[in-house]
Amino acid sequence: MTLRAISKDAKRSNKILVTDSLFIFDEHMRRMQDAGFEVERLDKLTASKEEMIAALKDKQGYVCGGLEKIDAEVIKTATGLKAVAVLASGYTEFLPSYQEATKQGIAIASCPGANSRAVAEYSLLLILASIRNFAELIRPGGVTFATGRELPSLTLGIVGFGHIGQELARMALVLGMKVQAHSRHAETIPGVKLVGLSELLATSDVVSLNVNKIHGAGVFGAAELAMMKNGATLVNCTFHEAVDQGALYAELVSGRLKFAADEPPMFVVSDVPAGSLIYSNASNAFNTQETLQRMSDRATNSIINLLKTGDDPDLVNPEYRQYLKNTN
């Protein structure tokens, strides 16, 4: 099926579903309407499977702005769906059925790098809070004085050197930190040394974990934690399951490591020495006005482009075209 044929098919259905209300502002709704589409919003953060099946009926486009998980059953019932724009870089988390969607001839776009500045800033905030003992200093009944460290005296190790990791490295370099990184890809930026994981863990005062969910749970387990320097800090602004909670608990109880947590830990916090744990609510790390605007702009452009032409700079599955039925 040619791109022209996709455009012809688009004229037979012009409805777009938008979920949640954090992203996609009125200006974006108007932009889609001005492009000739009827837009419907499902204003729920986490819609159920049944709600998504009903909401996607007769929809040609879908802008995923909530936390719903679209599985194969939902995709199978969305027979008129032509394109999905996911307001995230890790689209597989929200669209675990992306392979099924591709085989159903559905184009998918995401927003890689759109939140990198915000998350990198949040990671830097956690680094500063840890090395200056901020949580302990402001805690009721906490300490009055606590000797911290200055950034130029520290080495930052970044595990996962994608958009966020590179943005964090640039910030840290400007502030005088020594920066090294471990990545599966031989890609670096000036001033950053690429090293093996064991060397990074053994020589970094602060380790920032910046991997995505495609790597699976337990990226950091007992072996990795044991290799870290005594007194080092692990900052995790990625997904909760990336760090083995049992192994982390043992390290924190011993007082050997510090941890800036992304979500409430799955262990008894009272067992951990004061100042060793910062629960940061890092799932909010992306949430800046600028990021919301960037992601909404890109997702709106993507859904319009995909429905009108079948192509977009943020398209992640160009192979979807081979599954389109020839309707010429």
What can you see in these coordinates?
The structure is a single chain. 36% of the residues lie in helices and 15% in strands. It is built from 13 helices and twelve strands. It has helices spanning 3-10, 26-34, 49-55, 72-77, 91-94, 98-103, 116-131, 134-138, 163-174, 197-203, 222-227, 245-254, 289-309; strands spanning 15-19, 38-42, 61-64, 83-86, 107-109, 155-159, 178-182, 192-194, 206-209, 233-236, 258-261, 277-279. The strands form two sheets. It has a seven-stranded parallel sheet, sandwiched between helices. It has a five-stranded parallel sheet with strand order 2-1-3-4-5. It is elongated, with a radius of gyration of 22 Å. It starts with a helix and ends in a 19-residue tail after the last helix. Mean pLDDT is 89; it is low at 1-11.
Strand proportion, as a percent range, falls in: 5-15%
Number of domains: 2
CATH topology of the largest domain: Rossmann fold
Say how many strands there are: 12
CATH architecture assignment name of the largest domain = 3-Layer(aba) Sandwich
Strand order of the largest sheet: 8-7-6-9-10-11-12
Specify Rg, calculated over alpha carbons. Answer: 22 Å
Largest beta-sheet characterization: 7 strands, parallel
Q: Could you tell me how far the N terminus lies from the C terminus, measured between alpha carbons in angstroms?
A: 7 Å
Structure classification: alpha/beta
Assign the CATH superfamily of the largest domain. NAD(P)-binding Rossmann-like Domain
Q: In CATH, what is the class of the largest domain?
A: Alpha Beta
Stretches where pLDDT is under 50 for at least 5 consecutive residues are 1-11
Q: How many separate helices?
A: 13
Compressed to H and E, one letter per element, the order equals: HEHEHEHEHHEHHEHEEHEHEHEEH
Shape: elongated
Q: Could you estimate the helical fraction of the residues in percent?
A: 25-40%
Look at the structure and give the mean pLDDT.
89
